[in-house]
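Q: What would this chain look like folded?
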Amino acid sequence: MLPFPVTLVPGESPYRQVVYAATKAIVSGDLAAGATFPSVRELSHALKINPNTAQKVVADLQRAGLIEVRPGIGTVVSGLRRATAAERRGLLSKDLEQLLVEAKRLGLSKDELVDAVANRWCELFDEPRSAER
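A: My prediction, written as C-alpha cells:
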C-alpha cells in the first residue's frame, strides 16, 4: 500500500502522474519529513508499472531533494528543504486550468470567478468576507 494516493489515468504518462502525486503528498505535508517512502520495487508492484519507470520516479524525487535514499534504512522523505511558493502553486496548475476552462464554458467573467473563489474560501475556512465584495 502506498502512503500517498495515485490513480493512474490511461493516456497520461505514468511517470508524470506518480511524480505529481508523490510531490503533492510531500509538499502538502501529507508525507512528513522522515516518513518512509516506497522502494522502487514497492512502487512498481503497487502501481503495476515498469521497474524502470519506478526507478525514474525515485531518481527524479531524489534529485529534487524531496526524498533521500539512506543505506540500510531505505527511502525516506527528506527534511532538508521546504517547498517554495512556486512549487506549491505549480501543484494546482492542472486543477486550476480545469476550473478556468469550466468557468469560461459557463460564461463567467474573470471577476465573477474571483468572487466565487473568494466567497467559497471564506465559507470553507470560516473567514469573514471583505467589505469590498
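The first strand starts at residue 67 and ends at 70.
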